[in-house]
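Usage example:
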Amino acid sequence: MELFELTAHELSYLLSSKKTSAVEITESVLGRISEVEDKIGSYITICRDEALKRAVEVQKRIENGEAKSPLAGIPMALKDNICTEAIKTTCASKMLSEFIPPYNSFVAQKLNNSDTILLGKLNMDEFSMGGSTESSFFHKTKNPWDFERVPGGSSGGAAASVAAHETIFALGSDTGGSIRQPASFCGVVGMKPTYGTVSRYGLVAFASSLDQIGPLAKDVTDCALIMNAIMGHDDMDSTSLRAFYDDCTKGLINDVKGLRIGIPKEYLSDGINDEVRRAILDAIDVFKSLGAECEEFSLPLNEYAIPAYYIISSAEASSNLARYDGIKYGYRAPKYTDLLDMYNKTRSEGFGTEVKRRIMLGTYALSSGYYEEYYMKALKVRTLIINDFQKAFEKYDIILGPTAPTTAFMFGEKENNPLDMYLGDVYTVAVNVAGLPALTVPCGFDSKNLPIGMQLIGKALDEKLLLRAGYTFEQNTVFHKRKAKG
Amino acid sequence: MIEMKYEIVIGLEVHAELSTKSKIYCSCTTEFGGEPNTHCCPICTGMPGTLPVLNKNVVEYAIKAGLATNCQISGFSKQDRKNYFYPDLPKAYQISQYDLPVCKNGYIDIEFDDQHKRIGLTRIHIEEDAGKLFHDEMDAGSLIDYNRCGVPLIEIVSEPDMRSSMEAKIFLEKLKAILEYIDVSDCKMQEGSLRADVNVSVRPFGQRKFGTRTEMKNLNSFKAIIRAIEGESRRQIELIESGTKIIQETRRWDDNKGVSYSMRSKEEAHDYRYFPEPDLVPIVIDEGWIEEVRNLLPELPHERKKRYTIEFLLPEYDASVLTSSKHLADYFEQVTAICCNPKLASNWIMGELMRILKAKELEFSEIPISAEYLAKLLILIDKGKVNGTTAKKIFGIILETGKDPELIVSEQGLEAVCDEGAIVMIVNRVIEANNKSVLDYMNGKDKALGFIVGQCMKESKGKADAKVINRILKEQLEKLTDNS
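Running the assembly step on the lines above writes:
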């Protein structure tokens, strides 16, 4: 086995037992990047020299006993909407293609404090809007399991880089499924934490009330270690929760006896691919055989989650993205006649099609005369969806279903059919709308050897229980061990 | 007079910059001035990924303003985004409050021509200020200074309760005084920390329905506000008289030319697409907090005015003038504390001092003579050491030189001549030198006495008390008569 193939906790063990060094690990992963990045295209920016320099420093800290985090010496990468001081943060947009933040995001700082080693910044759908990473201004990222297929999105670069071993772990962001769906498509573990548990400071906003940063990892144990490193209250984010943040590794228990698992029947009916449904039914059998109580129930409002989500997220995006006006930073059209013309040309040229579509949708939904009909109504639906989940959690500890209705699709398959692309979020958006935590773990492969993901949804702040269910599943199956060809 | 047929209806939206140390959503200083773009950070310049965190003091100041203007304080309030594109607004939205302001339903009582009137306040909400644009005429380009971005503001919205520019002026003066008293804003209009949008409409007297209103934005002097109200109401009356309909619109008042220009009509008005700010949580204000702030409230203008009539036995008018500004009232109290003669202090402040302030166009915060020196001068008067005329002369010298009044008196030998023997000598010298006038007086020409007194004053170099001279002169003249 090469070092780059290992998980963070395996590498951490090798480091603490002095069987390897941060420098060796970093060189190994950088070597892997050199080998496969041309084919995969996970990264927008690779910080080769900085990473090696940092590895030397971190190794010293490890040897001096100063680096205490279990993630110390582990190379990682960040989705390119997570601000990194002095390193380009582009959101995969022409608009910010040269933007270098003078500040670190909360999570970048936290991971820095944990002595991790930043390898670079990962490709994504422009401003996180999309489910295939095809809307990146820079290049497409290929699914390491099949280069003809998308890695999912919007955190497609994050999922592909973990699956192709171009990093040990990554952080992505999830507004409507943007961590879970690509994790599912690339056969890795992904978690969308409870809204407010990971600070959004320094995450370039798409939809403020839905965005949440989370890990993409090779297994559930790594996921728990990363969660420990990035969770916590932050004074710089007003929506950050003042809660008791328990040690997530306490959830790494191989036991689901008596766990009450609810399966929304809406998640297994219309629109779901047969092979995905089969894999989920098999996963349910695994849980049953391990002593969990599994039962189907109805989540009737799920069908309204997509329209509510697209109105709320687009409305917030239309306002959040208004600041890219060519005045202060970012792209400015080279030729214009006056201020209005400068605004028009800058934003027409600087944003891609999907981003412009959402800005227009959101602007419309907030316009006077339509606000009540769309935005207000969507907020009401949001409350109903929250209530729907609350009711379900009176009966169940965890809600289980597929992460996405299909496995990874072909490039171009949905690019010109936005509605079809939006419907791919059918199982993921309700979780963001309700602010709940959810975990996706590999649970099988289709006949084309494409990974299938299972989604576990929990009560707010119940990450530990999700990790426990995911961990138990992982310990009793082998899906996470299969390697992508990339 | 056509104008006499119409009633003017005025409502004001007053923006006051709060004097908190740091900005509303970041820790940058709110200090005025400073090199361009030195009082800003990634948060107040709206850099990608940054988030606002509400400065609690801003809410406290708003509660203070609300309590001082008899508002209800909302237990639950939220912030909203007001979306529009302009280069001075770095996020392309202003965080403001839409439907749930911190304060609502208040009032301010104003007084004029022996009348009392209550002006309603619809609401007070908090919001952030924008940056400043500079148009470089040489280069045809524009420059932006973001120092002011994120400086906290309160917007105070009045009901359309004012009926003349005078009422509007008195309302603004009272509001300014209150904000200064409670120390939430320095209210410096020339620095833009207090500015007003003026809504004006006219209607024939007796008509209940309001006329169509127009709005003039960002007026930053009392004079401009008064002129804008007068100019705009005149324009509206002329339109109505000529049979033209008034359009609801925003107009720009050009104070130099004394005319307003149309900016945009109601149809062209911005659609600000207000929606709840998702980066901030609701503002919850409990009774305990409100009480805490209530206990912090200092004495308000009307309370202070009442106290002056009781504690210092000042006439209502004096009390009202002195308390119209916190700076002036504080100054008065400092002077009185030293000189112990409130009425004398009041007379001098309202007389000489106000005359100087007006002549030099100074604000009450810029009184050019220290309370200590004015008090010392008043003590000299009180003890009869200088007479009124000399006192005014000394006042002028203090202003010019900044010297201690006592020093001025001793240096220039201005102390009043009180020694009667000395005055008798002066009087006798004058009598001898002015035989003709003395004879005139003795022959019944009373006017001649005035001349002789004047000569005596001159001889004393103005330092003698005129009353004493009068008495002694009469005594000496009587002696002459008796002898003859």
